[in-house]
Task: structure prediction
Amino acid sequence: MKLAANLSLLYPGLPLAQRMAAAARDGFAGAEILFPYDLAPRELATMLRDHRLELVLVNTPVGSAGEKGLACLPGREDDFSHALQRALQVCEATECRMIHVMAGVPPAGAVPSACRATLISNLRKAAKRAQQAGVTLTLEALNRTDLPGYFYYRPDQVADIINTVGHDAVGLQFDLYHTQREGLDLGTTLDDVLPLVRHVQFANPQGRHEPDPASPAVAGALRKLANHGYAGWVGCEYIPKGDTSANLVWRHAYHAILDNQDTP
Result:
């Protein structure tokens, strides 16, 4: 399991190109960029090549009216289709193979069943387009404290949507931080959704700062993923307490855990 630097949060205060340079110097081979839509896709691709970084994840655009995503919003199907197309264009230029589809926050008075039907319909159409492009779509449960009202906040809710969509191009983005913020047990929650996991992220549940891989819950989840055969990326989506580079010492514990992944 390889670590990817989330360049939307790490190395704050630096322009994107300098964040890329810093991540490369710090030994990261992959990068997440949540909303890379201020740059032309080809320009972004050139920057990534220059710094020898692989773009491993982007989010769909969230919507021009301040939405937190569009995929579950009835009446906004065309807007979601356009947002997906922008993300696919980034993937085509950069060879990124993962898009987190932002479901959104249903507006006041929205009927939950209508939002669910809209999301499933949008995902079935989007999955065909993604598969043709060699891209996997992911859905992520976001905790209610950080993103109140988001369409789902538990991984099992996301798993239900994925299973209903029933397409190989749609999988689960499992974020240890959001799971712990909801007070859920990492081990049992992961057990329930493990076959669906396509991407992983983590941060410390206290303040969303540097992760603590040595904590028993996190260490157990990482071993569970590795022993199950997950060999994808683990996104470092956290807010640095101070200097990002100076505080990467937690990676020693991360690698030590994976080097002994068969240890119970």
Q: What stands out?
A: The chain has one domain: 2-209+231-237.
